[in-house]
Amino acid sequence: MALTARYLADKSALGRFPHPKVAARLRPLLEEGLVATCAIVDLEVLYSASGLDDYEAVLEEWDVLGDVPITPDVLREAIAVQTSTSAWASTGCRFRT
Question: Domain holding 59: CATH number?
Fold first, then answer.
């Protein structure tokens, strides 16, 4: 599958899907195939499965999402972004929620 996703979903974003405002934002992106996950997110979500049936259900649901390959360059960029947002947050600024 060619990578067409524009958004990387994490466990917290997808876990908030039942909230109407979150669903209103995510649903169109999911329907258009613009949301992907990566192996790290997949492992985190699957770790929270309550048993084998839940685990297999999550795997099946997750199969519709694109996959972003995690390479050393991607990890370095993620660390750089995390560093800059941590530095920004330490100034007292906060993200709007």
Answer: 3.40.50.1010
